[in-house]
Amino acid sequence: MFRISNTLVGTLNILTLLLSLAGMAGSAYIHFHKTDCLKVLMYPLLFGAFFVFVVSVLGIMGSMFRINEALYAYLLATFFVILAFMLFTVFALFVTNKVVGQKVSDKGFGEYKVADFSLWLQQYVINDKNWNDIKSCLLGVGLCQRNLSAAGVGCCKPPVQCGFTMKNATFWEVPKTGPAMNDTDCFTWKNKENKLCYDCNSCKGEVLANIRNQWRYLTIFNVCVLILLTSIYVLGCYAIRNNRRNQHLVYHPYGINR
User: Fold this and answer.
1) Is the C-alpha dihedral spanning 191, 194, 198, 200 positive or negative?
2) 184 neighbors 226 (Cβ within 8 angstroms)
3) Are 189 and 162 contacting, i.e. CB atoms less than 8 angstroms apart?
């Protein structure tokens, strides 16, 4: 007869199995659809979902079919998965805890500067290879041909402090006296559609802000998974004890301990 902990472990592992499949599907969607130029969630989501999938299968085998060897492997694997999730969550909190957005218009758009973010995030974006890949993707999806939102301000418009005059969505006129402020972004801006402000610090700041937001969503997801995995881990310990008791009753039908 199934005891309640075995049933709960099996049920919760079916839930984590479905979540892991959803995570792998989300990673595949990001890879095959060019919807996320940053792809910052793709690999953490894929690897995390894969390990949760393996652990869930072991948990289901051990609890539903009362295979102690599978449960022992499940508990060991779960321990390392919990540890990995904890370390990654702490790391994600550490690299996303520094940001300042300055309101630059009555529309509430924020301009971000690279220096507003953690050094790790800066190095992730600023290195030539990553930034060239990101810039190519932004151009490929036609970011600045869409209706501008907060996500496109830093890349598609010159900074407000430059004092440029807007002629249309992508063409800005420089004052005859030059930019109002001696800012490198003001001189980096080009009216060409493949240039605009894609090499500006304000554009890199927008990308960093997007990365920060995605990692924060991933951190919230990690905390939820951690709570669920820890609960299942405790129940798994009880499931092993129940399996032992069931095996003991098979060998000692009268319940006599030796």
Assistant:
1) negative
2) no
3) yes
Indicate whether 152 pLDDT > 80: no
Q: Are 63 and 13 in contact (CB under 8 A)?
A: yes
pLDDT band of residue 1 (cuts 50, 70, 90) is: very low
Residue 217 near residue 210, CB atoms below 8 Å = no
Please give the Cα distance from 84 to 256 (Å, whole number): 43
Residues 22 and 82 both lie in one domain: yes
| pLDDT (average), residues 91-106 | 64
- Give the ranges where 65-200 is alpha helix by DSSP (H): 68-95, 119-126, 128-140, 150-156, 184-188
**Local structure of 203: helix, strand or coil:** helix
- Contact call for residues 160 and 105 (beta carbons, < 8 A): yes
How many domains does one find in the chain?
2
Residue that the structure tokens 């993707």 belong to: 137
- What pTM, to 2 d.p., does this model score? 0.70
Q: Do residue 45 and residue 139 come from a single domain?
A: no
Separation between Cα atoms, residue 54 and residue 241, nearest integer Å: 22
Residue 31's pLDDT band (cuts 50, 70, 90): confident
Please indicate, yes or no, whether residues 76 and 30 belong to a single structural domain of this protein: yes
Question: Domain containing 132: what range?
Answer: 114-207
For residue 28, the surrounding DSSP H or E stretch is: helix 4-32
Q: If residue 14 lies in a helix (H) or strand (E), which one and from where to where? A: helix 4-32
Whether the CB-CB separation of 125 and 204 falls below 8 Å is answered with yes
